[in-house]
User: Fold this.
Amino acid sequence: MGSVCREVVTLQLGHYANYVGTHWWNLQDASLRYDADPHNPPSEVRSDALFREGLTQSGQTTYTPRLIALDLKGSLNTLRQEGTLYELHRQDSTFTWEGEVMTHEEEPAVKNVFLQDLERLDGEVLAEGEFSQQQQQQREQCRGAEGSVNASVERTQKLFSLEGSVRVWSDFLRIHLHPRSISVIHQYNHDGETNRMEAFGQGEALLREPLFLEELEDRLHFFVEECDYLQGFQVLCDLQDGFSGLGSGVTELLHDEYRGRGVFTWGLGPITHPDTSPVKDVFHLLNSVLGVVSLSNHSSLFCPLSLRGGLGRRPPPHITFPHLQYDPSLWYHSSAVLATALDTLTLPYRTLKDSATMGQLADAFAVSGRKVVTASGAVPFPMMLGDCLPNALAGFGEALPWKPLSACGEQSDGRCFAQSVSLRGVEGQSLVSQLAPGTQPPSPLHCYGSGEDVLTAYLQERYPGTPSMVHLVQSPCKPMTPFPQIFTPALGKHGFLESIPRPASTPVDSVPVLTCLQSSPLLHRCLSELHSEVSALDLRRFCSFLSAGTELDDLREALQDLKALAQHYKMNSDLDASSEEESD
Assistant:
């Protein structure tokens, strides 16, 4: 690929984080482009910022994520921890015991139909001596394709209904991972009633174990030391369980060991938990509070990411989208929506042209201690086939073009400290108005000559005086197999609205997406409500949470920090009003 690359190392901490991460890597794999392939247009996105090139022992080129994924014992199902791409040296299991040996066999986990098809296609791609001369030339042109069965999966265009067979995130993983990517935490179980990592203190304590810390640092050094220009780390972390505590320690480690590098942390939460209870709901709340405070403290930027209606125990209804039909109880569905948004949210530091580094983005947002941001997205961006961006934006009227993705509600009064808006999937002439000469423009947006100018003008109208960064990528997001079929029939094959409904047998293979990161006054209300809800609890009643390693004084200090953090998001007018109320 290109000669200059700003690499990013990704860490996924927790089961839901790995759900979102798996969809996200599948989307990246579907969009991979190789410089040596003359049939593909040049990519606008730097895939080598996220992927690393390697060689198997047989000399085959591979392309795997620069990724460290942590999860609990029993969370991998059919996936081998070391993967299947490399032939790793196995220790000789010969032993000299001559006594009686008792063998206990367990039935192996059964792969679902998608993984079975993937295994078959993968074997065909990796098999030696089964290609014609023309196919061999194509393989050489598409250098790196051996590490992915991307092309083979796309050619099948097969629809899978995996809703009943996805138990863990590896059940829909379509790419190969490096042997150093997956780390299993054997001290805690993914399933069952015992040895669960449910409290912040449990995750926090893991990094105090020398062997665990040494293994994590070894994995980090492996991926970091091969980078020419490491711009930073993106951390996907479960916010509502013990991984919140682990994420706190990991981000602190990154902050201390890699100073000057960006640390972008996404605090993830599902809409529902399968085995919840009133006590567990309180645990989720306490983990969220401790996570927001500590993760934002150790990160360059921190963004909650969830389709829940709020961060509290009794949130408003979950977020819906006009052209999605997803099941809020299925992690397989909700994580797909978040991953689609995350793909576009992270574009600013992954594009080839006019990109910003993680550090530059953090500097633009984190003014006056405001390191927490909110995310919003239009998934997909609703636009008629053949229409133009000015028409689509003008069609929203007074409504916002996106939905909230941070469980903080919606800011509709046009107040904002800073924002970064990214649009992908709207191409060429569709970015501007195509009015005939002499035609009166229906709105000021129709007068601009570039998509960037159209979007910038729209933001200036909606958020007057707000510093805004705009990023446009014409290539769409590609929700290819095994992405769930959650799009309404109103969307055509390429993700645009059409007058004739799409047949159920035709998948949507690309979509336009609009996202927004904001440093918003909305966070004052959201964080204050979170503070009030936890302050109303008698924390001494939750002995099992406190016995996991978090002291009562630690919780009280975190509440004070949360209250102080909320104050950073008060507008001057709000501060004046508060002062008047206090004086009265």
